[in-house]
Queue: 2 jobs
Job 1
Amino acid sequence: MDEIKTFADLDLSPEVMDALKKMGVKRPTTIQQKAIPLMMDNVSVIAKAPTGTGKTFAFGIPILEYLNLDSKLVQALILCPTRELALQITTELKGLAKYIKGFRAAALIGGQSMRLQAEKCQKKPQVIVATPGRLIDMVQRKLVDISDIYTLVLDEADEMLKMGFINDIRKIMAMTPKDKQIALFSATMPREIQDITWQFMQDAAEIDVMPKAEDHPDIDQYVVDCPEKDKLKTIVRIMAKEDLTKVIVFCNTKVTTSKVGEMLTAAGISARVLHGDIGQGTRNKVMDQYRAGKFDVLVATDVVARGIDVDDIEAIFNYDIPKENELYLHRIGRTARAGKSGKAFSLVAYLDRPRMEEIIRYTKIDPVPYEV
Ligand code: ADP
Ligand code: MG
């Protein structure tokens, strides 16, 4: 197979090409390059790819390409763990289908009136995006029929299993045609997912996408040259200039986080510190306050970065340049989540330069110099 580099190589319909153009989407991400041709060939896929690398279009585009718009049957079912995600996927699909006349999608999620959702189903959507519990409920009440679908997507499969949806997924497998295409997307592949794939997806193609900075299309990455002693001042200035009120400042050590936290407070910026020595109870409390916007800056070490799943973080700062290349990707992945864009600023002092250059080589990013 020739290498795919552009959306044109993927042989998409003019309607989808126009929508992508309209959205300013130029180059397919790695997961899109790999998953779209397979799914358009009716192959089932088990795809592991980091968060924020464009998985929604990876399954959304192939689905839109084969839909029979004249049919009144549900043809594709997308399962995901949360209501927010279901709504977000539905919105993204509608954007992608902007020029496809007669496209209908519905989100079926808990917490919304069943009557309202039954009305949505009467409009005969070809695509349903749902959380598992609500979907099963509606199928059992015969408010929706999923017995003719071509494609079942399990999005964020690891999260769905973590939330205890395993039995629901098994039930939905049984409610849908045996020979359907299944596309499973996940950021991680824990044991329980392997059980599912072994049971239901023996013929699937496996895709494993390694973290790459070029696959984070929505993060603007900058390097800021500044002397070590001016790093804090520089962060404060950038926050004012960019009007940022929800950011993370990453440091390499606990000692530095405490120092930076104090300096920010002294500079009149509301900040809290999180590192590995802070107990889980306090951590949860700090995270709740951060989510609720009670303070602007979270100062953190990498140890706690993994647990930070907040959707509207506007930017991250590397106060210290991370000691490992991989950590750079984990850090920037905290921003630009849930369909939002984000910024990453790396503060590079003279002694940081070799480390930053190594990260750039390894991650193949192309950060832009930032003038404060
Ligand atoms: P994931 O599901 O892998 O976490 P998403 O599908 O939510 O990622 O995509 C993250 C963001 O990137 C979304 O805002 C989406 O619109 C955007 N996006 C997706 N594919 C591309 C692309 N090829 N080029 C630019 N932006 C893209
Ligand atoms: Mg996703």
Job 2
Amino acid sequence: MELPVRVKESYEVNNEKLGRWIRDVAEMCQPDAIRWCDGSPGEYDRLMSDMVRRGTATPLAKRPNSFLFRSDPSDVARVEDRTFISCITYDEVGPTNNWINCDDLRRTMTELYRGCMHGRTMYVIPFSMGPLNSPMAKISIQVTDSPYVVCSMHIMTRVSPKVLEALGADGDFIKCLHSVGAPLAPGEEDALWPCAPIEQKYISHFPHDDEIWSYGSGYGGNALLGKKSLGLRIASAMARREGWMAEHMLILELELPGGELHYVAAAFPSACGKTNLAMLVSPLEHKGYKVRTIGDDIAWLRPGPDGRLWAVNPEAGFFGVVPGTGPETNPNAMATIRTNTIFTNVAVTRDGIPWWEGKDKKPPKDLLDWQGRPWNGTDKAAHPNSRFTVQARQCPSISPKWEDPQGVPLSALVFGGRRARLAPLVFEARDWEHGVFVAATMGSETTAAATGNVGVVRRDPMAMLPFCGYNMGDYFGHWLRMGQALESPPRIFHVNWFRQGQDGRFLWPGFGQNLRVLLWMIDRIKGKAGAVDTPIGKVPRPEDLNLEGLNVPDSDMKALLAVDREEWAAEVPEIRAFFDRFGERLPPPLSHSLDALAQRLGVTATA
Ligand code: SAT
Ligand code: MN
């Protein structure tokens, strides 16, 4: 079939593999035009003005260069049911992923992709995950027919012609193909937020080919393919082959009085406060304790020559949950999003001031909800998974080290979930192997970051349940092996900021006060803080924590640190049943750790 002239011109790229891939994609998707992106501010401005003209973007008042987008109400979060890891055999992807044989999936999706960009421009985005000068950097090309995705990729990744230079004539790259899946007939008017119906949505990963095929959604992790798809799913599979780790973790820098620096990486499921913790404002700043941000969502970890574990944030921006972000909960985020920010699915006043639950106490009058309707005062005005997209460098707490090509050495790894009951405020694992067990068995209540029920406890190992690009049993094995490769591994802790009292009240103030828990960890590492040995690990007594100036009643502190043997005993058969799903892929040390926990609790470990 004859292609438009502009499509042909773009074949002339230096890298033959890239040229061939772009030609194949163009022939399949049949865009009206192809545009190579350079990541420049001019390109961003042109695309944004165009979207404003067409009514898909709304400029916001009092926030320079900031825009509101409203997605289709059916396209507001990651679609885990429609997310696939596609290999030849089921065993490669395991029981926690959706599997379709890769040939079958390619056939199905090729049918969908055929002609899917009619009436649209196909953008080719060369980007790097990680600073280009980092040994951890991964070069990638995303093709998309969504200008919203192009602008978001500008913010979230490093888009630049330098990426093509680095690729050279025969370099390899990760292929990210994306379409909103809404071809236009000649003369047909475009939707404000084009997307495909749910049964046509596919977020597919081919780890053997370092390739991602996403179809039908324009939202967040479904469409900004550098993030969960590349940064976690494809990267985790690469990391296993290459001896490193791709994890769903924030990275923060903690400065102690006198200037000593410690780095901590922490894994929490989506919408459980990673951004807030990464941007924590120290309540003990006057005493010389400071916190700075390295990253808020993804950490690429590798053993350094010094035997420690080093971490790089591969992203360049934040795609943060907006509701709950306010001057008290996260002043650094509030300052970050004052300018140059894309807001998606927040509410807005008639004069263009964005609003969301938690921004300030009282909603303004005359509010339009996230779908642009006059707000009825009862439903949420902003969607619970509404997001800001903003460059990391705008964050006042960003660390000077955040783009260090070598990354930062970690003192501690923290795992946590959202659990109203059971898990104490903090405990320390006995050693790496026990830490892997603690992380592999963590549970958390689901949130609005993915479609489906909210508030149901599910096992979310390492907060990677939706993001692991291969069989999770093998992933546990990789974690155990990585520990053996480290001479000075970080210490492993588990936290729960969300424990509630009998009356349903949160017992811990959270936010900035979480610093006190981090300080206990650092003191443990330095051999300076006490703890009691419990069946689940080492738990501080209230007197082991620095609670100076904090008003938490003694009875709440006691409840926060309590380990209820009966409640924990009830977890044992649930963990066993979860482990059983992995069959022979479950590494024996995890099974032994469960037996040991059961024994310490005085129960049997069989389901
Ligand atoms: O939509 S994203 O996957 O990028 C956000 C999240 O779930 O953490
Ligand atoms: Mn996340």
